[in-house]
Design brief:
Dna Ligase, domain 1; Biotin-dependent 3-methylcrotonyl-coenzyme A carboxylase alpha1 subunit; Biotin_lipoyl; eight-stranded antiparallel β-sheet; metal ion binding; ATP-grasp; 17 helices; Rossmann fold; alpha+beta
């Protein structure tokens, strides 16, 4: 076993790897940019090396800096986590050339399976069924030959980034261009492939483990059908769809796929499965540890990071396929920095209050701590909450309860949405497919603010207005609602959550430094609080003061319907217009990217570009004005 391992990643996966290194008695080395100098993964490692200034997303991808950090700390091996470096053949080869062990498969296996086109050809030759499709440079012709719907996919990467489902071939060229931009931004390679889309498919993957002595086993499957924008948000093991015969058949196909590329280490073979007849087709192989690996760990009792290390150190697998058993059920939820009330756009901010559940069948893998600044440079996933039970019903119930106990105030997250999703009848019954979340999303997201939220917010505001003195209190400083010549009127508070409201409390409340409870119509509601945030059951609301007079006096073109504002903090990557251009309603004008996700900004109405305040490369804050579109005067209407 190694003495020292450098972890070439950040956030929750770095913390996760460091935990296993600690349990094995292996010294861990973390790396960090200035923005992460006090991050949790830095504090939990045995030592840490600065590799770049802030902000510096590129620092974590710099082969030169990472190899220098390994040399300075005496590391013998490098664990890449599950970021881009984990599937970067050039990085794996550079580690080997520097005398370091890359904890993962060989560079050749990464290159082969990282190219989805070559991967499909290789596993097809090994007898594994594949989805019909085509590739560059005949991409558009192949798509038209397959017929709609088709799925566009980057050849060089995964994680749903750059994937586009095209149901209308009249917009094929536009979708191809957008997919190429996202693929280039995410993977540095805009090569695409196209596949026939299987309607209402299930996404089921098989975990494989291989040593350097020719032994390959599979560790069962994970159901990953609950997705948004082709990205997994809930995963479970085992799948309720598979019977023993299908599980064995898919497992053997995954083993053959691993053997076909001379695989070593932990990897995942992903399949599209028809829910009706259980026919399955190879999609891709991820040559790394997966985000959802904890559910496999809980049902098999194996630490996959430990076995990555042992295999990389040259050990043989001490178990055969017949020794692998699946016991109980596990479900994982991915907590992401995104705002369900704003269409799941990436969010950001400072973590003001953090509570993460652990114990009693619940595990949280997280890189967060109070004070963590969540920006737009990195992937939006913050943590994973995993629950285990003797059966699926118990695991689901425990995970819903754990998500209700999850508190992340200061940064909007999807925790409350995931809790409601896990209670949806189709999910409870196991009737899943990759389009389910999009079909039911409107039932699980509400922009309406419950009255008790305003009641709690008003109680916090009233507490803040109370005079802070141990002596005499000026009665005119107390918000009592006192009026000259009249009965007291309860004070009203001008607040903004989604929209501005004027709210008069009508219940009772108790406020402490980090909690607030209100009783309304005989029902008690308890919230956690920090700054201007309150939360419960995984949901959180930012409640701001609203000055209606100032808002009225401050109205301008920038605050009206003519202005286009940034829907999320990020970077402007494309600007398609200039001041003075005539635009049509719905025309695409700009593209803002955050956390490797593109958002198109379109014209709200026909008009003229009156202002353009950004250019390609501009960093923008949420709600920052990007442009102003002066509407065309209606025909026959004369301006005063």
């Amino acid at each position: 076993m190694f003495d020292t391992v450098l972890v070439a990643n950040r956030g929750e996966i770095a913390v996760r790897v460091i935990r296993t290194l600690r349990s094995l008695g292996v010294r861990s080395v973390a790396v960090f940019s200035d923005a992460d100098a006090d991050a949790r993964h830095v504090r939990e490692a045995d030592t840490a090396v600065r590799i770049g200034p802030a902000p510096a997303a590129e620092s974590y991808l710099s082969t030169e800096r990472l190899l220098q950090a390994a040399a300075r700390t005496g590391a013998q091996a490098v664990h890449p986590g599950y970021g881009f470096l984990a599937e970067n053949a050039a990085f794996a080869r550079a580690c080997e050339e520097a005398g370091l062990v890359f904890i993962g498969p060989s560079a050749d296996a990464i290159a082969l399976m990282g190219d989805k086109i070559r991967a499909k050809e290789t596993v097809k030759a090994a007898g594994v069924p594949v989805v019909p499709g085509g590739r560059d440079p005949e991409l558009a012709d192949s798509a038209r030959e397959l017929g709609a719907p088709v799925l566009l996919k980057p050849s060089a990467g995964g994680g749903g980034k750059g994937m586009r489902l095209v149901r209308d071939l009249t917009v094929l060229e536009e979708e191809i261009a957008a997919a190429r931009r996202e693929a280039r931004a995410s993977f540095g390679d805009d090569t695409l492939l196209v596949e026939r889309w299987v309607d209402r498919p299930r996404h089921i993957e098989i975990q494989v483990l291989a040593d350097g002595h020719g032994n390959v086993v599979h560790l069962g499957e994970r159901e990953c059908s609950l997705q948004r924008r082709h990205q997994k948000i809930i995963e479970e093991a085992p799948s309720v769809l598979l019977d023993e015969a299908t599980r064995a058949s898919m497992g053997e196909a995954a083993v053959q796929a691993a053997r076909s590329c001379g695989y070593r280490g932990a990897g995942t073979v992903e399949f599209i499965v028809s829910g009706g007849d259980r026919n399955y087709y190879f999609m891709e192989m991820n040559t790394r540890l997966q985000v959802e690996h904890p559910v496999t760990e809980l049902v098999t009792g194996l630490d996959l990071v430990e076995w990555q290390l042992r295999v990389a150190a040259g050990e043989r697998l001490p178990f055969a396929q017949s020794d692998i058993t699946l016991t109980g059920h596990a479900v994982e939820a991915r907590i992401c920095a995104e705002d369900p009330a704003r269409g799941f756009l990436p969010s950001g901010g400072t973590v003001l209050l953090l509570d993460e559940p652990q114990g009693d069948g619940v595990r949280t893998d997280s890189g967060l701590s109070e004070g963590t600044e969540v920006g737009s440079l990195y992937d939006p996933m913050l943590s994973k909450v995993i629950a285990y039970g003797p059966d699926r019903e118990t695991a689901l119930r425990r995970l819903r309860a754990a998500l209700a106990q999850t508190v992340t105030l200061g940064v909007p997250t999807n925790a409350g949405f995931l809790r409601r999703l896990l209670a949806h009848p189709a999910v409870v019954q196991g009737d899943l497919d990759t389009g389910l979340v999009e079909r039911v999303v409107d039932d699980l997201v509400s922009t309406d603010v419950p009255e008790e939220v305003y009641e709690a917010a008003a109680a916090v505001r009233a507490r803040a207005l109370e005079p802070r003195t141990d002596g005499w209190v000026d009665p005119f400083s107390v918000p009592s609602g006192w009026r000259l010549g009249g009965t007291p009127k309860p004070p009203a508070f001008h607040l903004r959550v989604q929209d501005p409201v004027t709210y008069t409390p009508r219940g009772t409340a108790t406020v402490t430094h980090d909690t607030v409870s209100v009783t309304l119509d005989g029902v008690r509601h308890a919230f956690r609080r920090a700054g201007d945030w309150i939360g419960r059951d995984g949901d959180a609301w930012q409640v701001r003061d609203h000055d209606p007079v100032a808002a009225s006096l401050g109205r301008s073109a920038h605050a009206g319907a003519d202005s286009l504002t940034a829907p999320m903090p990020g970077t402007v990557t494309v600007v398609k217009v200039a001041v003075g251009d005539e635009v049509a309603a719905g025309q695409s004008l700009l593209v803002v990217e955050a956390m490797k996700m593109e958002h198109v900004i379109s014209a709200p109405h026909a008009g003229t570009v009156a202002e353009l305040d950004v250019s390609a490369g501009t960093t923008v804050a949420m709600d920052q004005v990007l442009a102003v579109i002066a509407p065309h005067e209606e025909e026959g209407v004369v301006a005063e």
